[in-house]
Amino acid sequence: VPVSVYANKEEASKVVANRIAAVIRKKQANGEHAILGLATGATPVKVYAELIRLHKEEGLSFKNVITFNLDEYFPMQPDAIQSYVTFMNKNLFDHVDIDQANINIPDGTLPASEIAAFCLAYEQKISELGGLDIQILGIGRTGHIGFNEPGSAPNSGTRLVTLDDLTRRDASRDFGGKENVPTKAITMGVGTIFKAKEIILMAWSENKAEIVRKAVEGEISSEIPATYLQLNDNVEFVLDTEAASLLT
Ligand code: F6R
Known about the structure:
about 250 residues, 8 helices, Glucosamine-6-phosphate deaminase
C-alpha cells in the first residue's frame, strides 16, 4: 500500500484537501458532478477547514459537488449535536456553496422496517452517479473503516451494524458517557468504499500508530477490516510522523 508521511496533520490535511479540490475542478471543467465520499470524526476536520479556505479565498465552488457520507449513528436525530449531519454542517457544508439537495448522509431516524430499502437505495444512488470519485477515510482503533467493525466482509454493502465496544468507548466523550453512545450505526460497506476511484485513508497521532501498523503490514483479515485496503490498487495512506512511527 502506498504510504505518504508528513511532518504534521496540518500539512497532510492540505495535501488531501488539494486532492479533493483537484477532483472538483476537473469535473467542473468537464461540466460534470464530482462525487465525494466523506468521513466524520476528528481526523478530517483540518481537511474540511482547508476546503472552506479554498472556497472563500481561492474561488473553489461546490456547486457541482455531490457528497455521500460514510456513516451515521443509529438511532440519531439529524439535529442532535452528536449527529454526523450536525458535524458535516458545522465543519463543511454551512461554509461552502453546496446545494443541500446534493448532500447524502445515512438516515438515523428510519423505522427498522425501512432500513434495508434505504441502504439499497444509497448504494444505487452512488452507482447511478457513476461511483465515488474520491473517498476519504479515517481509521478506528478497532481497525474499522466507516463503521465496518471486525467481522465485516470485504464485499459488504451499506447496512445497519453494531458498534464495537472500543468504538463506543472512544466516542464516549462526545456523548457524555459510553452508555449514551448508540449501539448501532448505518455505514457504507467495505465493498461500497472499494468501488471508489481513489481512496485516501488518513491517520494522525501516536494513538493510531498500532492500528496503522496492522492495517498496512498485518495479515489481511476480517478481524481488522482496514487490512482489506491492501487489496485495492487505488488506496493511499496519508499519515503524520507519529501515526507512521511503528511502520517498518
Ligand atoms: C467516521 C468514520 C470512522 C472514523 C474513525 C476515526 O465517519 O467512518 O471510521 O473515521 O472512527 O475517528 P477519529 O477521526 O475521530 O479518530
